[in-house]
Inverse folding.
């Protein structure tokens, strides 16, 4: 604000400062005075402030030359140069404070850090009281102004995390209350019962949650099936991908297999893994079969990991006619999920776009920049979470509880170990890391073949699954 310098040098004894700061002028009675907003002053012994060039303004007491003036709507006064949550930028005008900072706006030149343990949404916080605890919400929820999470209503979806918005499902589609995290999770409801008309292969239809993936070790034809069926003894499946008994494959130990195939490949006796041909799919792993896509659908060679990866190709170019939101269309692989930290428009778009600075996304789930959310930008897609962990409802990652597993990365959930098996908290990255539920007595060790043996003389063991 304007005012007189309280302390100054006065070597000549005239009762006035010998020199003023840049952005000020020297006055006979008041000493050094700040130049007004819209003016600049060279300081020193100059007794004048000069008007900024037409169409520009300045911050009171901060401009020492016309170069410090900047373009701005001249209907704004000093008090409202910038909106709350913004600061005067090094480029003309104002810029939002980044996530985790706040500013009162006006002529503020800086943003201040939120108090420890709190954060803010980019450009939204005008004071420390607008910062909030770093709680994040589940997919299908919205982060409210009172720093709590609430479900998105039916007919909308929300990416969760710190997103303050729920988004309308695409035209003609709806969702269950609090269940949809992306546009692709909205569904058609022709009979108006609030439930999907049909689920994808590998899913079951539930009363409250709509379509839900079958757990590993089970399968479902999809459609209106309301239950999942166990795979035959000695076989298992990939969560949400098996639609029939033949898509279950033998249980295996990764350490004992010479070849484990990628989705879209099958295991052969002589050649190891080979791509499934056009129009077929395979779950990969140790499956020896490729399955035909559903009638009217096709696939790219070696790139369909389940029936849901097959697509419509009316123009016969070997590519999908349209991709889901959160995906891009590629020449050789068809529809491909955008990486974590990106979003994709779907349709015939061939590009994924980076999320705004300081935000990220869940792989394949973001259809616009609004679906991106705040997260520590030192994390990459590959290391969001360690194997055996999931992205937590509190910032960062949390261990899967005993009896569950997760591949880590951007996984939002942990999956249950197959019946009769369990796991050690935070240690299992796949169903094959689960083991028989036998536990050992104190003084014993659980071996790699899941039996207990005594610790040798001179050693001790806590037992259980150690």
């Amino acid at each position: 604000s304007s005012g007189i310098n309280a302390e100054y040098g006065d070597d000549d004894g005239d009762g006035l400062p010998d020199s003023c700061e840049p952005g000020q002028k020297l006055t006979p009675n008041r000493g050094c005075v700040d130049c007004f907003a819209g003016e600049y002053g060279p300081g020193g012994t100059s007794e004048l402030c000069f008007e900024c060039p037409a169409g520009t303004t300045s911050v009171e007491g901060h401009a020492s030359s016309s170069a410090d003036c900047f373009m701005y709507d001249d209907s704004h006064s000093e008090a409202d140069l910038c909106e709350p949550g913004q600061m005067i930028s090094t480029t003309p005008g104002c810029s939002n404070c980044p996530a985790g900072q706040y500013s009162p706006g006006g002529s503020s030149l800086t943003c201040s850090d939120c108090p420890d343990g709190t954060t803010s949404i980019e450009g939204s916080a005008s004071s420390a009281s607008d910062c909030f605890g770093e709680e994040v919400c589940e997919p299908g929820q919205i982060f409210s102004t009172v720093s709590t999470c609430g479900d998105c209503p039916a007919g909308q979806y929300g990416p969760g995390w710190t997103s303050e918005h729920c988004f309308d499902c695409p035209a003609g589609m709806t969702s269950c209350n609090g269940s949809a995290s992306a546009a692709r999770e909205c569904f058609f409801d022709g009979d108006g019962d609030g439930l999907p008309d049909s689920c994808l292969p590998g899913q079951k239809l539930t009363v409250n949650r709509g379509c839900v993936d079958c757990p590993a070790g089970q399968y479902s034809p999809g459609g209106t099936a309301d239950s999942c069926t166990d795979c035959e003894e000695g076989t298992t499946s990939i969560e949400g991908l098996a639609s029939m008994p033949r898509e279950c494959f033998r249980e295996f130990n990764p350490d004992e297999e010479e070849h484990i195939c990628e989705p879209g490949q099958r295991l052969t006796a002589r050649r190891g893994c080979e791509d499934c041909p056009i129009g077929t799919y395979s779950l990969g792993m140790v499956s020896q079969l490729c399955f035909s896509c559903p009638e009217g659908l096709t696939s790219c060679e070696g790139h369909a990991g389940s029936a849901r990866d097959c697509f419509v190709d009316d123009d016969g170019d070997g590519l999908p006619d349209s991709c889901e939101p959160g995906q891009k269309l590629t020449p050789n692989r068809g529809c491909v999920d955008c990486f974590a930290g990106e979003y994709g428009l779907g349709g015939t778009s061939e590009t994924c776009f980076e999320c705004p600075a300081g935000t990220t996304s869940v792989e394949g789930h973001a259809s616009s920049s609004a679906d991106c959310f705040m997260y520590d930008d030192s994390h990459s897609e590959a290391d969001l979470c360690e194997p055996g962990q999931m992205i937590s409802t509190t910032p960062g990652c949390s261990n899967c509880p005993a009896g569950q597993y997760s591949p880590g990365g951007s996984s939002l959930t942990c999956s249950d170990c197959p019946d009769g098996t369990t796991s050690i908290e935070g240690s299992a990255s796949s169903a094959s890391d689960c083991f028989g539920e036998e536990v050992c007595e104190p003084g014993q060790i659980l071996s790699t073949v899941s039996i207990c043996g005594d610790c040798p003389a001179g050693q001790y063991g806590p037992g259980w699954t150690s």
